[in-house]
Specification:
The complex is a heterodimer. The two termini of chain A are 39 Å apart. Chain A contains 14 helices and eight strands. In chain A, α3 packs antiparallel against α5, α5 runs antiparallel to α6 and α6 packs antiparallel against α11. Classes of the chains: A alpha+beta, B mainly alpha.
């Protein structure tokens, strides 16, 4: 049997997102793989230059659909750094809570999502249902379920009421009580072990060479997490651990995500306890409307830890009411483009969706 | 004439029983997955809707393959006895080997038609399905051969009658378990749904099917499942009448669905290693016990 070209595109059930891989296979073995993004190119970076500083808040969450808040936080922190704004303390705690809630929601979807490529369809159903409870919190807090546009320049849009705080406590308890079920269903399954353990290994050298961050790097034993390495918000004031593994295989990448959920729950609980009571959650604009906000000349790079790795915004201002340039560092860029081309050849067809799922290849980040 | 009516009854019952059980299975899986699930008659809606659509053919090999698959499965479903001599349409030709032979016609028809569609995903799916047949049939046939040796007949309705005082499952529990594992593979339940894995090979053979063809192949699949589960019930849980047969059928089906809903799937080479490992060894052990007369 000769080489056959297969199109693993957006209409393929194993693909997550609007992305495609052209594969040349011989039998079941992938001989050559070429990633082909571009299905989702909307020119975010260019669009941002044509909008006011404030109205960009509505555009940037679209860069990453499952985890929109990291974009808002990055952008807002970048602008605050240039303008030297003092964000109220309560707003910073609320931002941390929102970011960690998104992390839990995204990890639940990713941990369940590994059930898709390997056929354990109970896992994604559970994961999505439990993620929905977090979306309920977001709906109560921000008015929207997916694109919140909540973290704005100078703070957050609305204050967190005691009722929502109570809701978060209860949801955290619920999710904590569900974790043993996930462990039993997914991570103690021997068939899953045989499919994921020792497969699709990315070594430390390869990961560092490509610039992979997040679980892809932590699974090789490097304790790299922006929350610890370069703490932003109040991450240096709370206790939490960074789970790492040494295998570097597909299983450890998924399992690390699962192990991060209790840590995020820990962070949110500490934040809820230590958050000061105050009505001040954003910096009011001194002159005129928020749309006319002028940011002084300057530039700033801000990076935060997303579920897929280091996520960064480089913001440049030339002192006008619109940004001069905003560049995004998508966390899944290296493993989504170079990783597929370099490390998929030699694996089997069955491994391709596992790579895409465990490496969290997120198409809009590449197509920004 | 009576045989023809009985055969027709086989088809009608098989169609309605398995399609409703598929719906019930979806409901059960949904409950395991903490959701409500579709109504039990959803699969009837699916099939009739697919049949009402305009077909899109991929050449005469494709057309012929689909019809051959459906014809082979229906012919087999007509012969299978349903739990007693009364409900055996063709008492002289319900030999196990006849059934297996006819059954292969349907499978090969499907393979031919789907390869005829020219889609590489379909070809990979068909090659996987045929590899899988190789996997589960070896232990299965060894267990059935020991059963035939034990009861000294290959006629299914006679096997059913001979189990009047005790199930074959209780005579050779090891063989029953292995046959059930093989049945999971035949039904394409997890962890053996490798040939139709959506995330890997875009549903494999089904990739190019649409409209009426999809409906026809769904019906073929329904009859195939009817034959597979019926054979297991007849050979291992024989005796009783039509009513008991239905109860056993449902129990076996629900068990398969429940196991399927909490397991991921194997890779193709893992599946082969699995079937030719422990189940095959135990099947030989079971055959040895039967030959030595060490049965319960």
């Amino acid at each position: 049997m000769g080489e056959v070209k297969l199109f693993f595109g957006p209409n393929h059930p194993g693909m997550n997102g609007n992305f495609s891989v052209h594969m040349y296979v011989e039998g079941d073995i992938v001989k050559k793989a070429r990633p082909l993004p571009g299905f989702l190119h909307r020119g975010f970076e260019k669009l941002m230059e044509r909008r006011y500083w404030y109205s960009n808040i509505a555009l940037i969450p679209r860069i990453c659909v499952p985890e929109p808040d990291i974009n808002e936080a990055c952008y807002a922190m970048g602008v605050e750094k240039i303008a030297k704004l003092d964000v109220p303390e309560r707003a910073q705690w609320i931002r941390m809570i929102v970011l960690e809630l998104t992390r839990i929601a995204n990890h639940l979807m990713a941990v369940g999502g590994i059930g898709g490529p390997i056929g354990l369809y109970t896992a994604p159903q559970w994961g999505t249902a439990d993620r929905d409870r977090i979306l309920d919190i977001f709906e109560a807090l921000t008015g929207a379920r997916v694109y919140h546009m909540y973290i704005v320049i100078g703070g957050v849009r609305k204050n967190m009421t005691p009722k929502i705080e109570d809701m978060i406590w209860k949801t955290l308890d619920y999710i904590e009580s569900r974790l043993p079920d996930y462990e039993n269903l997914i991570f103690k399954n021997r068939i899953l072990h045989s499919r994921l353990k020792g497969r699709l290994i990315l070594t430390r050298e390869q990961a560092l060479e490509m610039g992979v961050t997040g679980v892809g790097l932590r699974a090789t034993g490097v304790e790299y997490d922006v929350r610890k390495v370069d703490p932003y918000l109040f991450y240096d004031k709370v206790d939490f651990e960074i789970p790492t593994a040494t295998e570097g295989d597909a299983f450890s990448r998924v399992y690390l995500k699962f192990k991060e959920i209790p840590q995020s729950i820990r962070i949110i609980r500490q934040a809820l306890e230590r958050m000061p009571q105050s009505d001040k959650v954003n910096v009011p604009v001194s002159k005129g409307s928020a749309l006319r906000r002028i940011v002084p000349e300057g530039m700033a790079y801000v990076h935060i830890e997303s579920t897929r790795g280091e996520y960064g915004f480089f913001v440049v201002s030339d002192g006008k009411n619109k940004p001069y340039r905003v560049a995004v560092r998508g966390a899944s860029y290296p493993q989504g483009l170079y990783g597929i081309e370099k490390y998929l050849p030699g694996t089997r067809i069955e491994d391709v969706p596992i790579w895409l799922a465990t490496m969290d290849v997120c198409a809009p980040e590449i197509d920004r | 004439m009576v045989a023809a009516y009985k055969a027709l009854f086989n088809l009608v019952l098989g169609f309605f029983l398995v399609l409703s059980l598929e719906g019930v299975g979806r409901k059960i899986t949904a409950r395991v997955q903490r959701r409500i699930g579709p109504p039990w008659y959803q699969n009837f809606i699916d099939v009739f809707k697919a049949l009402s659509k305009h077909p899109f053919s991929n050449g005469w090999v494709f057309d012929f393959g689909v019809l051959m698959a459906l014809g082979g499965a229906m012919a087999t479903a007509m012969i299978v006895p349903m739990g007693s001599t009364t409900w055996t349409p063709f008492p002289n030709s319900d030999n196990f080997f006849v059934i297996m032979y006819l059954f292969a016609v349907g499978a090969l028809g499907m393979a031919m038609g789907m390869v005829g569609s020219g889609n590489p995903w379909a070809s990979i799916g068909v090659s996987r399905a045929l590899t899988q047949m190789l996997g589960y049939e070896l232990p299965y046939l060894i267990v059935i051969s020991s059963t035939i040796f034990y009861y000294k007949t290959a006629s299914i309705h006679k096997l059913v009658e001979l189990q009047k005082n005790g199930w074959n499952l209780l005579v050779m529990p090891l063989g029953g378990i292995i046959a059930f594992i093989s049945l999971m593979g035949m039904l394409g339940k997890k962890p053996f749904d490798i040939s139709t894995a959506p995330a890997e090979i875009a549903s494999g053979p089904m990739t190019e099917l649409s409209g009426k063809y999809l409906g026809l192949l769904h019906i073929m699949h329904v009859f195939a499942m009817f034959v597979e589960v019926s054979l297991f019930v007849d050979v291992f849980l024989g005796g009783g009448n039509l009513g008991w047969y239905l109860v056993k059928f449902i129990v076996v089906w629900v068990l398969a669905v429940l196991i399927s809903s909490v397991l991921p799937r194997f890779r193709i080479e893992q599946m082969l290693k699995f079937y030719w490992g422990v189940p095959l060894g135990l099947a030989f052990l079971n055959a040895l016990f039967v030959l030595l007369g060490w049965t319960l």
